[in-house]
Amino acid sequence: MTTAEEQDPALPTPVSLATIAREWGRIGCIGFGGPPAHIALLRQLCVEQRGWIAASEFEDGIAATNLLPGPASTQLAIYTAWRLRGVAGAILGGLCFIVPGLVLILALAALFLASGTPGWVRGAAAGAGGAVAAVAVHAAWGLVPGSWKRAGSARTARARWIGYALAGAAAAATVGPWLVLLLVATGLLEVAVRARPGATGAWPLPLAVAAPAAGGLLSLAWVAFKVGALSYGGGFVIIPLMQADAVHHYHWMTAAQFLNAVALGQITPGPVVQTVAVVGYAAAGVGGGLLAAAVAFTPSFLFVILGGRHFDALRANRHVQAFLTGAGPAVIGAIAGSAVPLALALTHAWQYAVLAAAAVWLLALRRGVVSALLGAGVLGVLAALVGLPTG
Questions:
Q1: Are 256 and 351 in contact (CB under 8 A)?
Q2: What is the C-alpha to C-alpha distance for residues 136 and 131, in angstroms, rounded to an integer?
Q3: Burial (0-12, 13-18, 19+ Cβ within 10 Å), 296
Q4: Phi-psi region of 140 (alpha: psi -120 to 50; beta: other; left: phi over 0)
Q5: Are 93 and 77 in contact (CB under 8 A)?
Q6: CA-based nearest residue to 278, from 320, 226, 232, 223
Q7: What is the pLDDT of residues 246-280, one digit of tens each?
Q8: Which residues fall within 8 angstroms of residue 298, CB to CB, at 6 or more apart?
Q9: Which of 16, 30, 165, 388 gets the most CB atoms within 10 Å of its CB?
Q10: pTM value?
């Protein structure tokens, strides 16, 4: 594999691995707020401050990584480091971006999932969990404009968009673990609809069609693999992919604990997909959390290291574009639909008041997710202090 410098002699002097470790680690520590914050920090570093990557190339990187399954902002962090120092840069930059948030979320998981935690901790967890359903709706709503535009202006295309979104919502609310099958089906259906007469077929997509029947670490690895390699549409689509498995099928955690896991993934820096590490911790302790994170993030490294040089061709492939035109609205529907089981998982009446307040904060006032979850956690602490149930 040639390095990024060999691919493009016009690039500046190669960036040292020490610099990549320092800068990508810094972003991993301060990258609160999910993918928009990560993209802004990477653009500021690579394009505006250091001039390492041209603005047009950075935008192309965003577009290409959004075509891939898995966490797009993590893949962008890996891709930008790959452009500067090839494989070594990709591995080092990706790890430095991921590890700070992973360490923090595992520490918080140990606190929030432990038995005998103080009342104020239980209250904070219950309060933040109460807001999660509103965060899901907010995440879905933010994806609508771009996906609607991608569908085009034809009435039939927009009708299909609505159908895909409704199907995704229904699947997330009922058959969450198998949602990946629906995402693939809607994508391939759109490929078939948009194919030119005489086209030879659809873009091939590898798909594991059945979950492992065995329990334990193999099942945990399967759940993490779905999150990292078979999910489209950003971090929040992992919720319906994980919830039924983690709570109902394998009983690794309670519904309330799963709400806490989602909240922790939102308020910690780095990738939202870190939520899978909390599920892994609940299943098998620290080792399970590390295994789940490794399985979930490895595909992102492989996509960039093995396919980075082909990103331009990927963006130009009409089958890929058609697939995402179909899968995209199904993802949006799934994220919105996940709000139903998340809301049903609430166990105390006061949590629904927190949910309503979070919905107003996010959807009416258009404020940020981190502030919503932190505010909900404070309300939960107050609820615990006045004697309201939190367990």
A1: no
A2: 9
A3: buried
A4: alpha
A5: yes
A6: 223
A7: 998 899 999 999 999 999 988 899 888 899 999 99
A8: 228
A9: 165
A10: 0.82
